[in-house]
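Dear colleagues,

For the upcoming journal club I promised to circulate an example of a predicted protein-ligand complex. I picked one with iron/sulfur cluster because it came up in last month's discussion. The inputs are reproduced below in full, followed by the predicted structure.
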Amino acid sequence: MMNRCSRCGACQAYCPLYQETGLEPFVARGKVELLDLLQDSKLQWNDKLAEIFSTCLLCGNCGDNCPNKVKADLLVREGRRDLVVARGLPIIKRTVFNHFLKKDGRLGMMAKLFYLYQHSGLQQVIRKSRVLEKLPGNLDLKEKILPNLSSREFRKMVPKVIKTENSKLRVGYFTGCMTNYVYPQTGFSVLKVLKANKVEVVIPEQGCCGIPALASGDYETVRELARKNLASFNSLSLDYIVTDCASCLGTWLEYPELWQENGVNLLVEKIMDISTFLVKILQIELPNPVDLGLIIYHDPCHLKRVPGGRENPRALLKQITGNTRFVEMKDADRCCGSAGSFHITHYQLSQKVVQAKVKTLESRQAQYLATGCPACMMQLSHAFSEAGLPTKVVHTMELVAKAY
Ligand code: SF4
Ligand code: SF4
């Protein structure tokens, strides 16, 4: 694929990071050039190169607009994988992936500790003391990104099988970590809408989809997580699998490449975003008009590329009537800058990227910004709150559920 790059530079106009920095190593052309040199052994991995390759949102906007169809996001990911092979993962990521991501119980324990930190008064004490401001790495700002965690895991608050009378279909629900630990209201909204439409829901044991590891080039960890998730959903006789998380969906769709075993394709073919399931499979019509004011929508990078991923959430939002109005936002599909752990590892740059959304909201006072990825919700909520904007960031399903 690299050979297809003609070095035309057209990607500069589409790369959010290049637009913010004007630096060639951050744009697709620069990274392809560096990968070429690495492959020819004219360069060796070093700290500087590691930093350059970690500075990419993997948003794919360059590839979508490249005349030669060079998918730089995939090339960057392969570069990160080579880097992991050559130098190993940084110690923080290695610790998080090995001791938390792969062990769902410990992830839950970490979420609980954060919840206690946020609700025991310790957070207020730390913030008032301003101790984090004195530490390196913008810790005081990063600490504010994480929204209030749920007191209980979503999956522990609901039965594993939610039956309805005369159910039409039986679906598995992959909740993802964010809905489970941070946004249980999204999960309850999904269940409410599915129940109203006579769908039986199964929520089996599951772990992280693996996206933090995939984005970091740690393919071994993703394979392990993929294997567990696939085994858990495989034996359930499901008609479909739904998820409310665009990032999880994107990762699941890569499972067949990562885990080439019989049956994986068949299982992965069943997964879809919840909005697609409601619009294309159930063909629902929302029953009640609701007065929600002005709604705008942000396209998650992982959702806009799957078939119907742009249209289906909009089709649902446009169905909400009453005094509710859906309006398109300028550059709705521009990456919000969240990008896995990018918003933490590259906090300042990530905040520059999200300012485009803040500016749009400053000029258009919407009541709600809806989106289909909890990671985007977290990034946008943080940016809006820092800017003092009143717009509430919600999952599309939270608004759809209000019509039931
Ligand atoms: S990646 Fe595509 S758009 Fe960018 S320089 Fe290469 S060919 Fe041109
Ligand atoms: S994937 Fe996104 S951030 Fe990375 S080079 Fe392409 S446009 Fe820039």
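Two points we might discuss: The chain has a mean pLDDT of 93. The chain is about 50% helix and 10% strand.

See you all on Thursday,
B. R.
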